[in-house]
Amino acid sequence: MNDMKPILASRRSVTVGLVVTALICAVLLVVPVPAQQAPKPPAAQPKQPAKPEPAKPEPAQPPAEKPLPKIEDMKVPDVATLLQGKPLCWVVTVKDEVIVSEPVSPRPFTRDAMEKAIADWPKGKSPKERRDKQLEFQRLHFLTIVLPETKADEPEYQLNIRFLTNVVHHEDLMLRRIDLLMDESKFRTAFEMLLALERVAAPKRVGNKERFWPGYVDRRNRLMLLEAESKIKRKRYQSAIAYLDDLKTLMADPPSESADERYVEFRRTLSERFSKAAGDAAEPLIASAVDAQDYRQARFFIQKRLQPLVPTHPVAAKWQKMLEGKQQGLLKQSVAATAAGQHGQAASFAKQATRFWPDEVKTAGSMSVRAIYAAATGRFQTLTVGVVNLAGSASGCPFPTESDRRHHELLTQLLFQVDRFENIPYYRTDYFEQYEPTDLGRQVEFTLRPRPASWQAGPGLTSDPIVSMLSARIDPKDPRYDERLAMFVDGLSIRSPQEFVIRFARVPVSPEALLRVPVVAPAPADQDGERVLSKRFRVHDRGKGYAVYRREIPEPDGLREYHVAEVRELKYDSYLKALQGLVRGEFEVLPRMPAWHVRTFETNERLQQQFHVVPYDVPTTHVIQFNPRSKSLRNSELRRALAFAVDRPKVLSETVLQDPRVISDPDQARGRVVTAPFPNRSYAYSQQLEPRQHDAILAISLATVAANRLGGRVPSLKMICSSEPIARAAAARLVTAWKRVGITVQLADSPVGDDADVPADWDLAYRTLHMTEPIVELWPFLTMRSAARVADLMHLPDWLRQELIDLDRAENFQAAVTVLHRLHRHIQEQVLLLPLWEIDEVMIVPRNIRGFSLTPLSPYQGLERWTIQSRIPLDSLPTSRSQ
């Protein structure tokens, strides 16, 4: 090896060593000395016969030294060698020869670092200091090289800087292999090499920035750009944007070293290639969203994806201009509709304009979207509601469900309605100015309001239709005959169009509860049924996935304040999708929400800034009701087996609420196990009765006894349930629990379409209800009819028939409570129904709505007085105030 010398193991004195090193490195290696020549022959002698001499072996020739490889002949090690083998470097001499060595120091930029150390070396002042410094100074001129895997006694050599061109370090070899991998489009392996390089040569923090190995940043940027371009070619645009987003962040910290020869052009064209890739990735996504009429998503790709990458990208400008043009065209139509008095169309155009582009257009002469939207939607206010079952849709159950109750609540107004519930219900009325009992409650004088309030959605009423309706209900010959009302009312009389009197044969416990009915009249001769006179809203439009209701009487022009004019329900497949739509601004009110999501709205500060969490005043009670006409369920042992087989706290905790506090801390949970079909804080609820405990062994025994009495086996039972997701999930858990004790129950399928039939031969029904006045509601509930009739009691046990009649004939409230507590106890003992649990549900209302009750009994309570403050829906939730 030319220009190198071994370091002697004896370590001679430094002075001699440096001198010898300098001399040896300045010349070529000494060629080995040849073998000694034979001595000259003596003077000529007389010729004698030649004697054969023995052949002498040729002297051994020293082996020729293998020349060092040239730099152009060196091959970059493969991935396995670089990652798993011993780190090596290439020391390049002035003759472009390569010495393979173990890692050397200093690094990187070895020659530059040595030259800088030589130039910066301080000189001593005294001769001794200068002499000592001179020796140390000489050491700086040599690079120590360690030959790998050599058999030499001294593997360390020193090379003078005069003979050193540069050093290709192990990290540089990794970078060269990464270049080759990128050229071959092996991006995954290249990424692995980059990560390995970052571990081998960890970045150093200099101030607030990190300094990587020279060349690392260029390779990383090129690799991410190539990966993004590859994703674009494969039409994986979102993945490409993700790479470009990361690359944008990394490009903010450019490399500090000068670029390699290969990467000079890359650095110059990086911004241009980045911009082109961003446009190629974003434009197909924007176009696809526009074609699908998902303009919110199109704005997201423009404003949140493309513009953060390249703020003034021409693709973003093109699509933004198109959407802004759509917005301006619709705003012009909204203004024209307002001028024509078509306020519903004006509001619709304004909302469509904000769907395209909700921000102000900054072009000169553009119309203000905020001003026009506020004027149009403030005049005609639309309340959008997200539901999993549309109001009035098929429910798969013959009893009123949540969707049925919303539908009837919108269409009809009752003479009296419950305003709040505090152990007992408190009533209010929108029709009567006053009503006053006289003659110890045997007569009540009613005075109607002279005209309906401006906010009322339906027409006003006079005495005549109300008295006519009540007269029909107490006439045994009329189809609308109500036995219970007829038992109490003795007579009716009209004093004036705004005054009438009801005389009672017996004083009712709650007159308001008896008159908690809508005002109806016979339908015209060419129609069947009845027509409702006490109206609120009417069905304006109905289609797949939506239902629209509008006020029966629109509010007139010129009012100081307007209220909700239209209700639009939007159907979602699940509560999760409904919650996503709520956060995205697709609708405003969520009337019901799973209990496991309530805590998120109560604790999340950003959601609290947007929404109110409004608790309902009355919990929702879940019960299993037995069909009195079912022959199998007349067997008391079978009913008890069904009751003991269900671990109600476990089902409530795991399925209905998904909250372990039901068992560990019941007072903090949003639900509880109950023993009656009415709320546990109702006056009718007997607090002395404890819920029946789960006992699977007893359930199996009772089921065996029931099977013996039913002919050897328990017949398969059929259960009906509404299509509400949580109710069906709970019903499925009940079916599983009953199957464990040997009772087979078949859950009827959910209805498909609005004309789905309900099976008539059902045995059990999973019901949800809100019973606020058990004195009048318990009889229809137990008979499964809409009104209380004696004929419907025939299928019930004798004792139950008698107690229901006693309840109706109670002379005062205390007597009625006594009968209700007795009924509660007997129902619990005889297992005439299976109360499950009650849920404290909530409604989610945005903060721009005013006038709603803080503790409503139903989603649309007092809807006519709600006011919606105009607010363009945001594409994202606002940042919390703390941030």
Give me a quick take on this structure.
Helix 12 (343-356) packs antiparallel against helix 13 (369-379). With 883 residues, the protein is of the alpha+beta class.
Textual characterization of the structure:
- This protein is of the alpha+beta class.
- It has five domains: 4-28 and 66-168, no CATH class; 171-304, no CATH class; 312-379; 413-535, Dipeptide-binding Protein, domain 1 (Alpha-Beta Complex), CATH 3.90.76; 620-839, Dipeptide-binding Protein, domain 3 (Roll).
- 39% of the residues lie in helices and 17% in strands.
- It has 28 helices and 30 strands.
- It has a six-stranded mixed β-sheet with strand order 23-27-22-26-24-25. It has a four-stranded mixed β-sheet with strand order 9-20-19-18. It has a four-stranded antiparallel β-sheet with strand order 12-13-15-14.
- Strand 10 (417-422) and strand 11 form a beta hairpin.
- Helix 8 crosses helix 9, helix 9 packs antiparallel against helix 10 (295-309) and helix 10 runs antiparallel to helix 11.
- The protein is elongated, with a radius of gyration of 46 Å.
- 34% of the residues are buried.
